[in-house]
Amino acid sequence: MTTTLAPEADTGDQQAATPSVMKALHLLDAFGGVGGGILGVSEIARRAGVPKSTAFRLLTHLEQGGYVERIGRDYCLGRHLFELGNSVPICRPSGLRDVAAPHLGQLLVRTQRLVNLAVLEGTEVVYLEKIHGQDPIQVASTVGGRMPASCSALGKAMLAFSGRDAIRAVLEGGLVRRTRYSVADPARFLQELSRVRTEGVAYDREEIQLGLVCAAVPVLDADGRAVAAVSASGPATRFNPGTVVAEVRRAAEAIGRDYRG
Fold it and tell me: Which InterPro entries did the record assign (predicted)?
């Protein structure tokens, strides 16, 4: 007699588990962009869009797994997430961040400016590395954080070498205006990307943060498409980003060469 497996029970279990899994992930996402990284249960529940009782129950499980840590009545992300985050390919030995590290260090020494490495994800840039120079300026970006690609030098450098679909997604999503200098006109934005393709360098002149200017160069693969971008930033009052283009380009080309190898 032939026995057939009935998947209904497994399917039901999956359907029952999926909402809780997604809610737990939303709880973790709630910590994104939090200054200090500490939140109370009520705020976590509000950000995640779940009832407070649900948030408390799931946070208990996340705490047991090391994904969050409890500080009094509040919570912060746990060290286990740090371990997992550094296990993703981009951060592992011979990954992009590892390959870029020595070149970013050299760029810092040569320019004495804030140095960044980022990748493009959808319509945003994700910062993989950030090394401070001597300037005391406070910068809103953080390692692992995101910024709109359309108003950052890093984002424009990558978009110019990422194909039409990436650019179309940014335009359809709407150009973000973080400051009065951010480009909000699509025609002007496309003109800017055309210039970046021609010159190989993108600039941010107080578009993402008042008082901050930046020059960025894409890291290209063998087909000439951007896999990342490198930048050097400084205060608008005493830094001309054009003066560091040669050094930023040298770093980006070295990273691209080593990463392709």
Answer: GAF-like_dom_sf, HTH_MetabolicPath_Reg, Tscrpt_reg_IclR_C, Tscrpt_reg_IclR_N, WH-like_DNA-bd_sf, WH_DNA-bd_sf
